[in-house]
Structures are given as structure tokens and as C-alpha cells.
Write a structure and sequence with these properties.
It is built from one helix and 16 strands. The strands form three sheets. Strands 4, 5, 7, 8, 9, 10, 11 and 15 form an eight-stranded antiparallel β-sheet that branches. Strands 2-16-6-12-13-14 form a six-stranded antiparallel β-sheet, with no helix packed on it. The protein is about 5% helix and about 50% strand. GO terms for molecular function: lactose binding; laminin binding.
Length: about 200
């Protein structure tokens, strides 16, 4: 049975400090046998966790890293896709979506930069294998606006990933040769409102 639960950031923070809070968990919603392809809405200032087979959790940006939801056990294979919807901070410098096997094996590091690391209005993509980064790839089409909303879709193909951004799409090679993408995380100046996969 798949059960989705929401926790408050305060309780999640206590858990990470070693304080047991199992009897204090606030269950905002339980969805038994939730099918894949169903959209998961992320409420503001909450931490979400989804148990078997998908795990989703995240931490409040003022408490711990990563700053947004983290999904594991996604099981995305060629022919499937992941869509993220959310709001960009009015003072955004950059945000990051990582998609891969786990936190140390990232098949796609998607990093729109408004003004960060020497880049202005540029999307930087990369891959990471066992903590070693590959060569950066830059996209100059930049449809994102500070304070605006965005929807980004990642299609998993056999040899690459197709990234759909507003008004544009591009591909990034599957450098790690991953047959399954199990991991997704978000960081930076982007508030996730929903994640869906199918």
C-alpha cells in the first residue's frame, strides 16, 4: 500500500536532530494505493514523504539542505516523464533540478541561472558520476521570469532526456547510461507546487 503523508518542517527538523517524533506525526492526507501518474501537490511550508514504492521528502529551506522536495524510487524508464510546476522567487538567482540514480549519480543537473556563477539568463546542464561532474552544456533560450510560474517536463528516452520548458525544448545525453531514473531533487529559488510522473 502506498501512503502519502505530510509533516511540518518543525517535526522533520526534530527528527534529523535525533529526537523521536513518531507519536507526534501530523498526517495531513493518506492516499492508499495512489497510482503513478497522479499529481502530488506540495503545500507551502510543509514537508512531504511518500512511502513505497516512491519516497518523497523535503526540508524547509531555512532548516536543512536540500531546499526542496527529494524523490527516490521513482522508477522512471524510457517513455516516461516527470513534470514539475512551481513558482520562481521574485529575487531569484538560480534554481536546480537533479534527476538521476541517487544524489551522487545525477543523469541531468538542470540549473537555470538568472545571475549566478558568472552566468546571466542561461540554463546550465551537466551530469555527475560518483561526485565527479562532467562538461557543462549551456542553453541560451531562457523563458523564465523572476516571480513567475513555470512548468518543466523531463521525458526519459533511451539515450537522452528531452527537457520541455515554456516555448522551447532541448535534449541532454544520458551520459551515465541509466536505464532507470530513481532520484529527483530541487534546490534554490523555486517553490514546487506540484510534481507528477507517468
Amino acid at each position: 500500500m502506498r501512503v502519502w503523508r505530510l509533516w511540518t518542517p518543525r517535526l522533520a527538523h526534530q527528527e534529523t536532530e535525533g529526537n523521536p517524533v513518531a507519536n507526534q506525526i501530523i498526517t495531513a492526507c493518506d492516499i492508499p494505493n495512489a497510482p503513478s501518474g497522479q499529481e502530488l501537490g506540495i503545500a507551502k511550508d510543509t514537508v512531504a514523504m511518500v512511502s513505497c514504492p516512491l519516497t518523497l521528502f523535503g526540508f524547509d529551506k531555512d532548516l536543512l539542505l536540500p531546499k526542496g522536495p527529494v524523490c527516490t524510487n521513482l522508477g522512471l524508464k524510457p517513455g516516461q516523464r516527470l513534470t514539475v510546476k512551481g513558482k520562481i522567487s521574485p529575487s531569484a538567482k538560480s534554481f536546480v533540478f537533479n534527476l538521476g540514480k541517487d544524489a551522487s549519480s545525477i543523469g541531468l543537473h538542470f540549473n537555470p541561472r538568472f545571475d549566478a556563477h558568472g552566468d546571466v539568463n542561461t540554463i546550465v546542464c551537466n551530469s555527475k558520476k560518483v561526485e565527479e561532474w562532467g562538461a557543462e552544456h549551456r542553453e541560451t533560450v531562457f523563458p523564465f521570469q523572476k516571480g513567475g510560474t513555470a512548468e518543466i517536463t523531463f521525458n526519459v528516452n533511451q539515450n537522452d532526456l528531452t527537457v520541455h520548458i515554456p516555448g522551447h525544448q532541448f535534449t541532454f545525453p544520458n551520459r551515465l547510461g541509466l536505464s532507470v531514473f530513481d532520484y529527483f531533487d530541487t534546490q534554490g529559488d523555486f517553490t514546487v507546487q506540484s510534481i507528477s510522473w507517468e
